Amino acid sequence: MTTEQPHEEQPHGEQPHEEQPHGGQPDERGAPVGRRVVLGTLGLGALGLVAAPALQRGLESFLGGAAGKDPTGLTGLLPNGGGFRYYSVTSSVPRKDASNYRLTIDGLVDRPTSYTLDELTALPQTRMVRDVQCVTGWRVPDTPFEGVRLSRLLDAAGVRPSAGAIRFTCFDGAYTESLTLDQARRADVLVALRMQDKDLSHSHGGPVRLYVAPMYFYKSAKWLSGITVTEKVRPGYWEERGYDVDAWVGRSNGRHDEPTA
To answer: Any signal peptide, and if so, which residues (predicted)?
Structure first.
């Protein structure tokens, strides 16, 4: 549950909440991956960041070839000087497309709704170009995302006065995230359908993911399947394992990165 999208980023996320499952027939729910395994693998990969450029290019080439044959997906956690890394908190993730994808909006709303991929695509789209910052340290500058503003979907569903937060669930069967209602209504929070001017690939959390531009990438949950309006914030997958619930870039998780938005 995105780098990643940790279900991306170490979070779900992705090359930074990203990750790419490999091999085998995907289960509807995979086995969660422990934070110790993820951070240990990232620590090993960090050796490549201080290597000479030629060695680093060789490492990237090796990892690219090995990832396709790695049934664990752990090679996808290693840092890559070229940009995103792919993370997931499950061993496999089902694949969805226009024929079977659904995004549900429920909870404290007057009009519970289910959107197909085609219905989301038909809505007005917003494009943003911002840096992506992973809580593990890497950053990808000037990354375009395009999708529907989350606030538009919430308004269409009719959020009730008692609501105060949003809980996001993902079709990997394990990853969750959350935002306060005020955070979710920001203009720079998208239900994203495109990234880097292409339809979202499966490994980047497609066909639909969350994109929270001003926060660390683990908040941008990959493989988004559910938006539930709740009374209070419920900590997400990585918040339950030590990450900050309010994940503003440069103002959380003990980091001082430059803001992305």
So the answer is: none
User: 61-104: per-residue pLDDT in tens?
Assistant: 444 444 444 444 444 444 443 477 777 788 889 999 999 999 99
Secondary structure of residue 208 in the 3-state scheme: coil
**Considering the domain 35-241 in this protein, what is its CATH number?**
3.90.420.10
DSSP state for residue 77 in the 8-state scheme: G
Which residues on neighbouring strands pair with residue 41, listed in sequence order?
none
Single-letter amino acid, residue 135: V
Rounded to whole angstroms, the Cα distance separating 227 from 34 reads 25
**Which tokens is 83 given?**
């940009």
Name, in order, each residue with C-beta under 8 angstroms of 65's C-beta and a sequence gap of 6 or more. none
Angle at 146 between CA 236 and CA 220, to 5 degrees: 10
Contact status, residue 79 vs residue 139, Cβ threshold 8 Å: no
Dihedral pair phi/psi, residue 244, rounded to 5°: -70, 140
> What's the sign of the alpha-carbon dihedral 246, 248, 251, 255?
positive
Q: Is the dihedral of CA 238, 240, 242, 245 positive or negative?
A: positive
| pTM as predicted | 0.74
Residue 139, classified by CB atoms within 10 Å of its CB into exposed (0-12), middle (13-18) or buried (19+), is middle
Sheet holding 224-230: strands in order across? 113-116, 102-107, 224-230, 165-170, 176-180
